[in-house]
């Protein structure tokens, strides 16, 4: 890969969620980097499931929370909360929702090339 510098002020792609935010994506060589803005009221099963067409999120996320809070609901029944400063690895098979009345901003370096992309 060659040296690259890009900014989320000019994303390569924007993927809107059904009603509560969007994901800005930058193509960095053969990888994608995402900055997701998840508005209050956002929930994967309501805002992305209709786009993805799967029962739960099948993306693998490796990310950092810049602001806001989110609860992750794993298919195995476990839950965990993330917030500003959290570095997380989330395997496929989960739902998620924004907590509180502030948006959650999440930088994602995981396997997100297909995230919130219509199938």
UniProtKB/TrEMBL annotation:
SUPFAM superfamilies: RmlC-like cupins. It holds the Pfam family Cupin_2. It comes from the Bacteria. Residues 60-108 form the Cupin type-2 domain. This is Putative cupin superfamily protein. It comes from Longispora fulva.
């Amino acid at each position: 890969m060659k040296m690259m510098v890009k900014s989320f002020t000019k994303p390569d792609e924007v993927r809107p969620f059904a009603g509560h935010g969007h994901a800005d994506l930058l193509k960095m060589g053969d990888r994608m980097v995402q900055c997701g803005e998840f508005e209050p009221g956002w929930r994967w099963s309501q805002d992305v499931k209709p786009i993805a067409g799967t029962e739960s999120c099948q993306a693998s996320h490796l990310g950092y929370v810049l602001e806001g809070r989110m609860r992750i609901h794993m298919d195995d029944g476990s839950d965990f909360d993330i917030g500003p400063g959290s570095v997380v690895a989330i395997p496929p098979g989960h739902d998620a929702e924004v907590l509180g009345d502030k948006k959650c901003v999440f930088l994602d370096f995981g396997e997100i090339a297909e995230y919130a992309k219509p199938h």
